[in-house]
Amino acid sequence: MAAAAIFLLFHPALLAQDFAVVGAKTWTMTSQKPVENATIIVRSGKIVSIENSGTVPPDLKVIAGESKVVTPGFFNAATQIGLIETGAIAATDDRASDWDRLGAGFDVSRALNGNSLLVELARADGITGAFVYPSASKKMPFGGLAATVKMRNTVEILDRPAASLVAYLGDGVWKNASGSRAVEWQALRMALEGGSRPSRTGAADKAEMKPDDWALSRVRAREIPLSIFADRESDIREAIKLAKEFDIRIVIIGGAQAWRAAGDLAEAKIPVVVSPALNLPYNYDKLGARLDNAQLLARAGVEIAFGLVGGRISSNYNAGLALREEAGIAVANGLPYFAALRAVTTAPRTIYGVTGGILTEGADADFVIWDGDPIEPSTLALKVYSQGIELPTSTRQDALASRYLEHVDKKERR
Amino acid sequence: MSNFTFGGCREPSEIAPLAFVRVGGLMGAVTMQSAIRFFPCAARPVRGRNSLVKIAIAILLGAAVAASAFPSPLSARSSWDNPPIPSRYVAPARQSVIIRGATILVGDGGRIDDGDILLRNGKIARVGKDIASSGELEIDGRGLWITPGLIDVHSHDGTFVLPLLDIDSHAGDVTEGSDINVADTWIETAVNPQDVAFSRALRAGVTTLQILPGSTPIFGGHAVVVHPVPAATLAEMKFPGAPVGIKMACGENPKSTGGKADHKDWPTSRQGVFSYMRASFQAAKDYLANERSGHAQPNDPKKAALAGLLAGDFRLHMHCYRASDLAAMLDLADEFDFRITAFHHATEAYKIADRLKAAGTCAAVWSDWWGYKAETLDAVRANAPILEHAGACVMMHSDSPAVGQRLNIEAAKAAAAGRRIGLAFSAEQMIRWTTSVPARALGLEDRIGTLAAGYNADLVVWSGDPFSIYSQPRLVFIDGAIRFDRSDAEPYAATDFELGRIEYGEVK
Fold it and tell me: Is there a contact between B409 and A325 if contact means CB atoms under 8 Å apart?
């Protein structure tokens, strides 16, 4: 009873307000062009209409959008927000399985923490969704099962658990255990060949299978993609072969040298999640990393999304701002603007099998009102909506800044 | 801003001007401003021993007094205390250039719309409107923006060399790790010019960067200032006559190495780190006193380096995050009468903006790094805006070959955080954080960081507003020579490392 009451209390349809946003340039992502001076009508958490200079029903609250820009909420295609709060405290770090009984089946969805300050900050930066991946486990070459998250104003941010199985190939990740990346590829093939083999149609009962086997069965059944962290061309081409031989879906994450295999990746319909700003060879797998990687991939017809943005620190601690900055860097280096917007809205959601990322009649009212071009890092997210509910965008950083700004101003007045 | 500390110059090229100052003192007519202009490295306003005030007094008292009152940075107390590598940097041949009709951000807070700039003999000859030309190469700057070359006061390029090698995990060149005090080391002896990060910095508009040693030891050693230009040796990149910095670190980094197997006798706590600093400065003070009084003492390069700090010969760049650490360091500096030029990282500087302002100590900060360790948990993106608003000295820095390619965007992100809390900054104000302010921190404020007549012709011609993510450097000048031109058929010169390896560079 109580649970039902609480459920009703927080049910989005009850919290969502009916309102209209008027005057904003609106990227619906259903067209290469934005709707100028749009009137967006939202009722019961859903978008009713988006029309140029549309009229507003008299009963609706109006939110001024003049000189503003509206886009779907952004989506970070490779981050670990919700799995770590600070590197200073191991107890806040739930990114990896150190238990030798859970490799492929390690399921990060059990550890997600929507109360993390990293989530709050990403939300304030206009991120409403993300692909949250596990780090390397103890069972080569797997990390485990990644989840997608959806920003809400609660601790509960899980959207789709087990959205993809994650594996790490090359880049020295397993060097001490494998001795050679050939071992890593063989271990991956052995895992895909082994275990119980459910039919395509009759997916095996999860309860009857060990978690690692179940995770692999999802991949073999093409229900979820295998996301392979790889940078070197030889590994990327090995992944293409694997996709063909095993008839499985693969996503490449990282892909520093993916531009060298762009045509073949496009032909194999393998999406690539890239960090557009990566132009430094941190290791030998990343030789030839270049700022127009995203552009070259997109031009060849590869589906791209952006993740691992901002490097080791900001990919988690600034998962929102770094995403926007790197989308801008991709455009500065030749990627068409619309393709960059797709890579942070629609594309990653499509790759990982979740809805959203487009603003169209009947879609959830998940969008952001920006005070300018959203892929300029100096632009601010003014309002962030999920299912028509305005999410809080003030952060602990804002509270600290305000406190000490007040100190400065008091001293000045004295 | 006359209360900033300045280090002495040890470069051969500075010998003549310094000698001339001393003689010039007898002439008795050297104004402070002209002294700064003509003897940039020798005559600097400082609180310490080399102050212009003291020089002025010396002028009154006569040169004989000056000789003892101001031990020359050149009359080195010990040979250990001189830079081991002289600058062999030479600007390439260049022609006179005039760029017309650009939006010019001067670097010192000024802005000239539809402005012209004339470069001659490696220097800026004129900046203004409708400058008369006389046969110079004319560049149409309409629609373009011009800023001083960007300056990064915190780089590890050339020592954190990419790609990282196996050996770097236990024997890298960022930091000498044999002792908690490696003040006697000189990072210039480690720099590998073939680090690709230099080439990336140059094409991102960086014309000067300071390579600092790392922050594992408390006393990390001497820094070096370079131009990120293609070269076979560090000497060919080394900024001629730049004051020398020394790196120190407080907080988590130095304390966290203590107690480990290799470093059992290193401090393991903040109080241990400060105690070690205090003891070291006391020893250096005694060493300096002995030296001044002519008492014989064993040559000790570590003490000599710290004595140099106390004597004001070196500029101190401090790695510190927490407000309480910053404040404790300022107290230590008061106790031993030395100056801290800048706190680097300083994620909590905004909490003590007034103290930093009063001390004349700058903060060199990121726009948004936080969270990765305990002392970063109170970082705010509005750090720089709050400091600027309070009248304290603030600049952006990188500490990273990635961020080092986007110092302009660091400033843009910081300013946006200011806008979020009601502090607005114009482009001409923001550009200071990556140009004239870091120039001041390096003691090079009379040569670089500002677009004004007489300054080195270090500048960037941008495709648009430099604080937009879409803008890119079109031309990068160093000492009047074009070192990067995006319109070249092959604008990206391969480093030796990249040459013959997998393709480099971006499609235009």
Answer: yes
The helix/strand/coil state of B116 is strand
> Hey, CA dihedral for A241, A244, A245, A249, is it positive or negative?
positive
For β-strands B481-485 and B111-120, DSSP reports them as: unpaired
pLDDT averages per 10-residue partition of chain A, 414 residues: 48 73 98 98 97 96 97 98 95 96 97 97 97 98 98 94 98 93 98 69 65 96 98 98 98 97 98 97 95 97 98 96 98 98 98 96 97 98 96 96 93 62
Q: Which amino acid is at A278?
A: L
What is A239-308 written as a DSSP string? HHHHHHHHT--EEEEE-TTGGGGHHHHHHTT--EEE-TT--S-SSGGGTT--TTHHHHHHHTT--EEE-S
Rounded to two decimals, the ipTM of the complex is: 0.94
Q: How far is Cα B299 from Cα B81, in angstroms, rounded to an integer?
A: 10
Shortest distance, CA A414 to any CA of chain B (angstroms): 13
Question: Which chain A residues have a beta carbon less than 8 Å from that of B350?
Answer: 401, 404
Tens digits of residue pLDDT in B396-414: 999 999 999 999 999 999 9
- Pairwise CA distance, residues A275 & B139, whole Å: 35
Q: Environment class of residue A186 by beta-carbon count within 10 Å: exposed (0-12), middle (13-18) or buried (19+)?
A: middle
Cα separation, B391 vs B191, whole angstroms: 36
B507 contact residues in A (CB cutoff 8 A): 292, 295-296, 334
Residue of A nearest to B380 (CA): A397
Contact B421 A296 (CB under 8 A): no
> Cβ distance B480 to B119 under 8 Å?
yes
Q: Are A55 and A71 in contact (CB under 8 A)?
A: no
Asked if residue A292 lies in contact with residue A329, where contact means CB atoms within 8 angstroms, the answer is no
Q: Which of B162, B386, B400 sits opposite A405 (nearest CB)?
A: B386
Angle between helices B270-292 and B323-336 (to 10 degrees): 20
Of the candidates B448, B82, B504, the one whose C-alpha atom is nearest the C-alpha of residue B239 is B448
Interface test with A, best of B389, B468, B469, B498 (most A CBs within 10 A): B469
Q: Which residues of A touch B400 (CB under 8 A)?
A: 311
Place of tokens 């140099």: B308
- Chain-centroid distance of CA A65 in Å reads 26
Amino acid at B185: T
Read off the pLDDT of residues B78-87 as tens digits, 9 standing for 90 and up. 556 789 999 9
- Contacts of residue B443, defined as CB under 8 A and 6 or more positions apart, other chains included, come to B6, B7, B41, B44, B242, B243, B315
**CA–CA separation, A75 and A73 (whole Å):** 7
Cα of B121 vs its chain's centroid, Å: 24
Encoded tokens for B256: 């966290």
Cα B77–B81–B84 angle (5° rounding)? Answer: 135
> What dihedral do alpha carbons A263, A271, A125, B388 form, nearest 10°?
-40
Tell me which residue of B50, B113, B115, B23 sits closest to B443, measured CA to CA: B50
Q: Which of A88, A279, A284 has the CB atom closest to B373's CB atom?
A: A88
The pair of three-digit structure tokens given for residue B474, joined into one six-digit string: 């079109």
Q: Which amino acid is at B288?
A: L
Sign of CA dihedral B160, B165, B168, B172: negative
Q: Is B265 exposed, middle or buried (0-12, 13-18, 19+ CB in 10 A)?
A: exposed
Q: Are B113 and B103 in contact (CB under 8 A)?
A: yes
User: What SS3 class is residue B183?
Assistant: coil
Sign of CA dihedral A186, A187, A190, A191: negative
Q: How far apart are CA A365 and CA A92, in angstroms?
A: 32
